[in-house]
Amino acid sequence: MKRxxxxxxxxxxLADSFGQLPVPAxxxxxxxxxxxxxxxRRLMPSNSVVAVFSYPxxxxxxxxxxxxxxxxxxxxxxxxxxxxxxxxxFKEAQQDSAGKAYSELFFVQQRNxxxxxxxxxxxxxxxxxxxxxxxxxYNSTDLGRYLPDLAKFDKIIFxxxxxxxxxxxxxxxxxxxVKIFRKKAAIPDDYDAEVLAEIASLLEYPGATSPEVLPxxxxxxxxxxGSSERHQQNSFAQRLLNVKQPxxxxxxxxxxxxxxxxxxxxxxxxxxxxxxxxxxEIRLMKKAIDISALAHNEAMKxxxxxxxxxxxxxxxxxxxxKLGAEYVGYPSIVGAGANGCVLHYVENNATEVGNRLVxxxxxxxxxxxxxxxxxxxxxxxKFTSEQKQIYDIVYQAQEAVFKICKEGTTFKExxxxxRKVVGQGLVKLGIIKSETxxxxxxxxGCSHFLGLDVHDKGIYKGLLENMIITVEPGIYxxxxxxxxxxxxxxxxxxxxxxxxxxxxxEILSLLAPRSTEEVExxxxxxxxxxxxxxxxxx
Length: 538
Prior knowledge:
Blueprint: H1 2-18, H2 30-43, E1 48-53, E2 59-61, E3 64-65, H3 72-78, E4 86-95, E5 101-108, H4 113-119, H5 124-132, E6 137-139, H6 143-146, E7 155-159, H7 174-184, H8 193-203, H9 214-225, H10 229-232, H11 235-241, H12 246-257, E8 261-262, H13 264-274, H14 279-302, H15 309-322, E9 327-328, E10 333-336, E11 357-361, E12 364-366, E13 369-370, E14 374-378, H16 385-402, H17 411-428, E15 468-471, E16 474-477, E17 490-493, E18 496-499, E19 506-507, H18 516-523
Parallel strand pairs: 1-7, 5-6, 7-8
Antiparallel strand pairs: 1-4, 2-3, 4-5, 9-12, 10-11, 11-14, 12-13, 15-18, 16-17, 18-19
Helix pairs in contact: 2-3, 14-15, 16-17
């Protein structure tokens, strides 16, 4: 009998070894994540602790969850991509009951062979130690047992995940981890971390303390808080609603940051770190952007008037997968004609694009890092006169912004530069009467940070070397607009990703053509899709 069990054990080991297939080897290494944690410690104030939570799992249908996507912050600091986890970082070394020193604690999802058969292998405590380089690792089911008393710290810095729900039968979901953390940190029951985080994000908005921006900020916040009981019951929210002078906003932010339990510092520190890309991050970003650009090229080559928006989406996302990108960085936008005028149009359900312009805003996510690239091209392969005129204004606005994409330029200068070119162009065509009306047809901003999120964390002031931003002016003229009908249904956005340098920026997405001449040249080429014949009998 003993020999029989030995045989089964050997067989299981052989099956496991033979069953291992090649996996990508160019993820960020453990040293990268360790250095990111050290960078966070350098920002933390004395006698403080930072907590980084995993995102909760989200239900897709009945007993099936969406494919899990890690909290970018937790991935940034650890490389961990599973749910039910929390990382604790301490400014100064701590000692456990046995006198052992530690500077971080990592609580991770427990191994469970029965569950792993259904949902995949988990790293577990030993896997995290070996693969990710942590020393002090525990099962998240033991958070209440091993998490020290946090109330002794002067600053407890954290951000709770959104949409928490208590999963029946689990004791280590995000809901339970937050509940235990609140108790160990002695957080008052009336402390609403989400409301405070929302207020802090508004106060950090560029120019929030200026007299010009203040009325709009208060008007916007009133629209949010007016129907929310949580905002109405929060003293900081009420103070914001009653602000009369810009100086009061600064005082309000100082008071929020003086709190022992601090979400504002969490946002500030993670933004300061993530807005500057390391050499390793830039390498991954370039890969994601190259994949995205090549996918846009294939869509330009493949498009035919009889194609559907969904078909074009599939072509592009196939190239992503073919080249190793695990996800799209955000829901894919494929808008033909007037559909392109809907800024975040994701239905992609038009069955024929016809002879319209097609706006495709699709970016690949590679090893956690996302591109954000938009190209607009004619389904017929050739721009009409009206389409070309609108396209060229957007192109010229981009070119003007590229010239100032360098260290020291502010986001305000980028915005003003793009709007000036768009406004002048639309006036020249008779679509608007004054440059100041440009927002009628250009309603969004020109640039945002890019990285682990498509709208990545960062501080919207002056550009710094090794930031990566988007440059994405656009013009959208919906049906029924107050202009000549010949312009109706034309939507153009050109979006490129730029690495900021001290003297100039590097446009990372040039593999995909930008000018009308280059786009038409690409569209004239044959696609691999041209060889495919797939017919479904109706």
